C-alpha cells in the first residue's frame, strides 16, 4: 500500500492511496471459499456447491466487499501512521487512471482542530448576588395564591383582574373577518391574553351591556391580513366575575403539600425552594459568561462534519419536544439548518472544554457526583429514592458526572478571570417584569 497526504484547508485533508489488485484478488478467493462452506443452492447439499458455481453467483458481491475492506484498512493504517484524528466519515474518490495492477483512490476528510488553551486573565465575569428574604417569600406565595384564584359572579362593572364572559364580532370594511367572532368567550382583564385596546373597551361594562368600538391592530400582529388594519368590534358582556384569592392559611398550606397545614412550614419550604432556584439561576448566568469567555479566548475552526451531526441532533431533539407537546411533527418541517449557529457553538465548546478538562484534570470526583445528586434530591418528598434512581444505571449517573465536569470548568475559569459580584433584584434574576 502506498499513501500520500495533502492539506486541502485548515481542517480538510486528502490522502491518495493505492492497493495491490493481487491482494484484492487473494481476498476475493478467500471470501468465496468461506461462502462455499455454508452456501445453499437447489440440487446441492449445504457446503457441497461446486466452487465454480459459487464464484459465478457470488464473485461480484465478494469483490465489492473485498474492495471495501481494503479501502477501509488502507485508510485506517494511513491515519494511524500520520497520527490524524478524523472527524466524521471520509469521502472516497476512486481514480480512473490507475497504474497497472493497482487500485488507486483518494480519501477526503476532516480532522479535529488543535486546541491551544488561551489566556483568560483579561476575561470579565459578573456573578449575580441575591439573598432570599421575607419579601421574596411573600412575592412567591402571592404568585401561588394567584394560581389558585377562583371567580365568582359580580353584579358590577368589569375592572382590572376580573374575568368577563363575552360575545363579540369584528368587522373589517363592514365584513366579518376570519377569527373575529366568538360566543361565551372568557378572558381576564389585565392578564394580557387580549390586546390592550380591546381590554380597555370592555373595562367598565356590566353584564348585559354592549358596546361598539373602533380598533387598529398593531403593525406586528401575528395575523398578517389584520396587521395595522382598522376594524370595528361589537361586544356584549354576558357575565362579570370577580377574582377571589385564597387566604394564606392552613387550607392553602395543605393544598401546597404541607400535610399539617402549618403556615410557618409553608414559608420555610417556599424559602428553601427559592434558595435552590436562585442558586441554579446564578450558576446558569455565570456559566453562560464562562462559555462566552472560553470561546473568545480560544478561537478555533470546527469540522463541518461535526457541526452537521450536531445540527441534525438538535433538530431531532426539537421534534421530540414538539411531539411531547402533542404536536404532529410530520406536519411541521424542522430543518437541521435552523440550528447551525447553535451547533457551531456547542461543537466549539465541546472541543475546548474537553481539552481544558484534560489539561487541568477537571474530571468529576465520586464525592462531587454524590453531593450533586443528593442536592438535586432535596426537592423531592423522598430524597433517597431519587439518589437510588440515579445510581441504579450508569447512564443516569453519567448525566450527573457531566454536570459536575461543567461545574469544575466554571469554577476553574472564574478563578482565572476577573470576577466581580453584582447585586440583582429578585425580578431581574427570575426574568419577571417589574410590577
TrEMBL record:
It comes from the Bacteria. Its EC number is 5.2.1.8. InterPro entries: PPIase_dom_sf, PPIase_FKBP_dom, Trig_fac, Trigger_fac_C, Trigger_fac_C_sf, Trigger_fac_ribosome-bd_bac, Trigger_fac_ribosome-bd_sf, Trigger_fact/SurA_dom_sf. Keywords: Cell cycle, Cell division, Chaperone, Cytoplasm, Isomerase, Rotamase. Residues 161-246 form the PPIase FKBP-type domain. It is found in: Cytoplasm. SUPFAM superfamilies: FKBP-like, Triger factor/SurA peptide-binding domain-like, Trigger factor ribosome-binding domain. One of its GO terms (molecular function) is peptidyl-prolyl cis-trans isomerase activity. Its main location: cytoplasm. The keyword Cell cycle applies. It catalyses: [protein]-peptidylproline (omega=180) = [protein]-peptidylproline (omega=0). Consists of 3 domains; the N-terminus binds the ribosome, the middle domain has PPIase activity, while the C-terminus has intrinsic chaperone activity on its own. Belongs to the FKBP-type PPIase family. Tig subfamily. Involved in protein export. Acts as a chaperone by maintaining the newly synthesized protein in an open conformation. Functions as a peptidyl-prolyl cis-trans isomerase. This is Trigger factor.
Amino acid at each position: 500500500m502506498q499513501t500520500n497526504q495533502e492539506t486541502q484547508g485548515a481542517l480538510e485533508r486528502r490522502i491518495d492511496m493505492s492497493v495491490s489488485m493481487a491482494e484484492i484478488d487473494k481476498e476475493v478467493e478467500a471470501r468465496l471459499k468461506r461462502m462455499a462452506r455454508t452456501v445453499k443452492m437447489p440440487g446441492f447439499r449445504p457446503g457441497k456447491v461446486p466452487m465454480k458455481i459459487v464464484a459465478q453467483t457470488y464473485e461480484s458481491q465478494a469483490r465489492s466487499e473485498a474492495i471495501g475492506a481494503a479501502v477501509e484498512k488502507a485508510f485506517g493504517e494511513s491515519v494511524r501512521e500520520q497520527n490524524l484524528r478524523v472527524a466524521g466519515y471520509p469521502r472516497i474518490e476512486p481514480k480512473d487512471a490507475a497504474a497497472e495492477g493497482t487500485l488507486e483512490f483518494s480519501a477526503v476528510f476532516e480532522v479535529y482542530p488543535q486546541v491551544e488553551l488561551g489566556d483568560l486573565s483579561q476575561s470579565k465575569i459578573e456573578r449575580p448576588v441575591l439573598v432570599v428574604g421575607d419579601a421574596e417569600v411573600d412575592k412567591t406565595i402571592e404568585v401561588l395564591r394567584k394560581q389558585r384564584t377562583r371567580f365568582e359572579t359580580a353584579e358590577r362593572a368589569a375592572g382590572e383582574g376580573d374575568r368577563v364572559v363575552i360575545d363579540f364580532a369584528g368587522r373589517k370594511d363592514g365584513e366579518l373577518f376570519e377569527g373575529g367572532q366568538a360566543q361565551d368567550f372568557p378572558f381576564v382583564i389585565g392578564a394580557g391574553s387580549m390586546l390592550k385596546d380591546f381590554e380597555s373597551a370592555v373595562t367598565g361594562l356590566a353584564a348585559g351591556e354592549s358596546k361598539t368600538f373602533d380598533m387598529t391592530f398593531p403593525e406586528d400582529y401575528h395575523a398578517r391580513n389584520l396587521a395595522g388594519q382598522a376594524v370595528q368590534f361589537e361586544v356584549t358582556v354576558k357575565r362579570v366575575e370577580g377574582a377571589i384569592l385564597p387566604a394564606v392559611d392552613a387550607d392553602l398550606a395543605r393544598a401546597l403539600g404541607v400535610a399539617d397545614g402549618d403556615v410557618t412550614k409553608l414559608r420555610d419550604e417556599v424559602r428553601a425552594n427559592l434558595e435552590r432556584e436562585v442558586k441554579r439561576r446564578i450558576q446558569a448566568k455565570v456559566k453562560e459568561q464562562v462559555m462566552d469567555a472560553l470561546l473568545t479566548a480560544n478561537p478555533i475552526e470546527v469540522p463541518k462534519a461535526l457541526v452537521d451531526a450536531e445540527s441534525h441532533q438538535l433538530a431531532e431533539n426539537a421534534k421530540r419536544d414538539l411531539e411531547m407537546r402533542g404536536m404532529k411533527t410530520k406536519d411541521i418541517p424542522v430543518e437541521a439548518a435552523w440550528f447551525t449557529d447553535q451547533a457551531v457553538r456547542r461543537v466549539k465548546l465541546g472541543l475546548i472544554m474537553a481539552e481544558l478538562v484534560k489539561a487541568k484534570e477537571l474530571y468529576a470526583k465520586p464525592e462531587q457526583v454524590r453531593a450533586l445528586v443528593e442536592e438535586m434530591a432535596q426537592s423531592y418528598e423522598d430524597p433517597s429514592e431519587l439518589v437510588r434512581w440515579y445510581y441504579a444505571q450508569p447512564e443516569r449517573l453519567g448525566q450527573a458526572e457531566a454536570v459536575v465536569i461543567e461545574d469544575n470548568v466554571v469554577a476553574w475559569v472564574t478563578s482565572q478571570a476577573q470576577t466581580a459580584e453584582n447585586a440583582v433584584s429578585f425580578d431581574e434574576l427570575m426574568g419577571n417584569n417589574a410590577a
